[in-house]
Amino acid sequence: MITLEQALAAIAAARAEGRRRALQPLTVVVLDVGGHVVAAQREDGSSNKRFEIAHGKAHGALALGLGSRALMRRAEQQAYFIASVTAAVGPLVPVPGGVLVRDAGGAVVGAVGVSGDTSDHDEAVAIVGIESIGFVADPG
After folding, report:
1. Where are the domains of the chain?
2. I need a labelling partner for 109 at 20 to 30 A (CA). Which of 34, 37, 87, 97 fits?
3. Amino acid 90: pLDDT
């Protein structure tokens, strides 16, 4: 389980890493294992649909049990599958930046989605956020 305090701390760490790297303004969304938003923050200057993108990255990772980097590889090989899953389960953004959150035993307890800079940078700061609160990041 990811608590509100943990989610806020993960967001703070991800945002701090984004500032350290001089990234574009970020939006960070933390979902619990059921796909519910625990916390989200949008930095000043982050474009208006970044929440939906970050949410879609995290939601897709939870829906298929794969980080969004793995979903991107799947989309490249089977675009019809990703399109079908999106229609069946809702928002799914198959590019890096949606990272599964695992506990020490390997169980999925949630996901973090980041949007605002390049997908690789989004993924990197999501990993920093997750690891800062003692969980294992699984980007796929």
Report:
1. 4-138
2. 87
3. 84
CB atoms within 10 A of CB 13: 19
89 has pLDDT over 90: no
Tally: H helices and E strands in the chain: 5, 5
Q: Which of 124, 132, 134, 133 is nearest to 98 (CA)?
A: 124
Instruction: Tell me what the mean pLDDT of segment 29-42 comes to.
Output: 98
Residue type, 127: I
Output the CATH code of domain 4-138: 3.30.450.150
Query: How many other C-beta atoms are found inside a 10 Å radius of the C-beta of residue 91?
Result: 16
The residue among 52 and 140 whose pLDDT is bigger is 52
Is the model's pTM score more than 0.85? Answer: yes
Which strands, in side-by-side order, build the sheet including 27-32? 37-42, 27-32, 108-115, 98-102, 136-138
Confidence of residue 77 (pLDDT cuts 50, 70, 90): very high
User: What is the distance between the terminal CA atoms of the chain, rounded to a whole angstrom?
Assistant: 20
Q: Pinpoint the alpha helices (H) of 22-139.
A: 50-64, 68-77, 79-89, 119-132
